[in-house]
Design a protein that fits this description.
By secondary structure, this protein is α+β, with helices and mostly antiparallel strands. Helix content is about 15%, strand content about 25%. The protein contains 9 helices and 26 strands. A hairpin with a 4-residue loop joins strand 25 and strand 26 (about 405-415). It is globular.
Length: about 425
């Protein structure tokens, strides 16, 4: 495909991508839906009248909304029509937008002149624990190599309900929290500032489509119809608070510190050329979790760490989405097997994504092996866990022969704790 908008070959947002986001500008502070193309944002509010296909001509209002929720609530066929319409309009062979100077001036905004916002109103957020290498690493650290995985791990996609209110868009700083921690085993806990702040490299997806009613599970075979698209995620974690509070009900305040997501939602259609085999599963999952079609993606992931005031950042992790043991279809099927009803805009995350090699571990807990192996940064400093002022930058991309599908970045700076 040839686009009339010029961009570099290694651009994150070619015409093959077209991710959705929500933005505003200084000249227009209203939140509106846009599509990333090259270094620009195409304002869908300005071209909503051009979505005149058989399915969308009666739904043009969804492109005038301040969030993606109503568009997400349409079915998969509508999403396909929207993508085809956008690719046609951006094609170098189509004069409709290309030659309309006045409309182009209104509809295209430079990304560096826009402010990005959360792409959807997130009603509920769930975080899974789907990387076998991450789960094995953590289990080895805190139990033993022989007893690393819990008895249920290979039978069920494990997850917990997170806090939707503290999900924030990339660029939002995160404050170091206070909480209870256990300084020494057998001693009473103490209250104070978390000393062991960490990141977690994750990928999350937004729920969409005609969702299920209460009491009616989503079939794993059709679960892709309810997966709108994917974002990068940093699940900030206070490890010392987590260690004390997680028994017996799992993560709580150590995880609601803040959860950062990238602003651009990359659709499953953009990822389809990068489908790879699902991770081998043994034992075979129960029938309600079994799907024969491939729904795993070759998404290269990186984490950079930049100390406060430093002119250089260090890539400390290179991982890949394909390392996930449980697919997003299985996660969604498990989440709804009891009849839990989903809503468009709900966010489901993968859990930390780690590979087999030590430089592919998706958290500082693993990279420094619980603080016993400090990581050396390019500026000469070292890290066991995050320090105040550190900025964590996550990147993701699929690499084709002559284009890439990029996710942009998911970044956040850790600020000092407030004084209580």
């Amino acid at each position: 495909m040839k686009c009339f908008v010029n961009y570099e070959k290694n651009c994150d947002f070619p015409i093959e991508n077209l991710p959705y986001g929500v933005f505003s500008t200084n000249n227009d502070i209203c939140h509106r839906i846009g599509v990333a193309i090259g270094d620009f944002i195409l304002d869908l509010k300005e071209i909503s009248h051009l979505f005149n296909g058989p399915l969308l001509k009666s739904h043009q209002d969804v492109f005038k909304e301040p969030t993606l929720n109503k568009f997400m609530a349409l079915n998969r066929e509508c999403w396909i029509e929207a993508r085809k319409t956008l690719q046609d309009l951006l094609s170098s062979d189509n004069p409709t937008l290309r030659d309309n100077t006045e409309l182009k001036a209104r509809a295209f905004v430079r990304q560096n002149e826009a402010r990005m916002h959360l792409p959807a109103t997130i009603g509920d957020y769930t975080d899974f624990y789907s990387s076998i290498h991450h789960a094995t690493n953590v289990g080895t650290m805190f139990r033993s190599k022989e007893n690393a995985l819990s008895a249920n791990w290979k039978y069920i996609p494990i997850g917990y309900h997170g806090r939707a209110s503290s999900v924030v868009v990339s660029g939002t700083p995160i404050r170091r929290p206070h909480g209870q921690t256990l300084v020494a085993d057998g001693a009473p806990p103490v209250f104070g500032t978390s000393k062991l702040m960490d990141f977690e490299l994750e990928v999350a997806f937004f729920v969409g489509g005609k969702t299920n009613k209460l009491g009616e599970p989503i079939s794993v075979k059709n679960a892709h119809e309810n997966i709108f698209g994917f974002v990068l995620m940093n699940d900030w974690s206070a490890r010392d608070i987590q260690k004390w509070e997680y028994v017996p009900l799992g993560p709580f305040t150590a995880k609601n510190v803040g959860t950062s997501i990238s602003p651009w939602v990359v659709t499953t259609f953009a990822l389809e050329p990068f489908i790879v085999d699902n991770y081998p599963q043994d034992p075979k999952p129960f029938p309600y979790l079994t799907h024969e079609d491939k729904f795993n993606f070759n998404i290269n992931l990186e984490v950079d760490l930049k100390p406060d005031g430093s002119k250089t950042s260090t890539t400390i992790c290179r991982s890949n989405y394909k390392y996930l043991y449980w697919t997003s279809k299985q996660q969604l099927a498990q989440h709804t097997i009891t009849g839990c009803n989903m809503n468009p805009g709900d966010l489901l995350a993968s859990g930390t994504i780690s590979g087999e090699e030590s430089d592919s571990f998706g958290s500082l807990l693993e990279l420094s092996w619980k603080g016993t192996k400090p990581i050396k940064l390019n500026d000469g400093s070292q890290r066991k866990f995050l320090q105040d002022g550190d900025t964590v930058i996550m990147k993701g991309k699929c690499e084709g022969d002559d284009y890439i599908i990029g996710f942009g970045t998911c970044e956040g700076k850790l600020l000092p704790a407030i004084q209580l």
